[in-house]
Amino acid sequence: MVKIKDLQIQSEVSENPLITIHLKSMLLYGFIVSMEQKHKRFSLRRGAVFTISFVISCGLIFMKISRGFESLAAGATSCATAFLYLSTSITIVNAFFQRARVVKMCTFLHEDINKLMALADEREKKMFAETIKYLRYVTVILWTPSVFAGFIAYADCFYRTIFLPETVFNMPQVLSGEAEPILLFQLFPFGEIYDNFFVGYLGACYALFLGITTIPCWHTFITCLMNYIVIKFQIINKRLKEMDVSSDTVHTFIVN
Question: Which domain of life is it from (predicted)?
Answer without folding.
Answer: Eukaryota
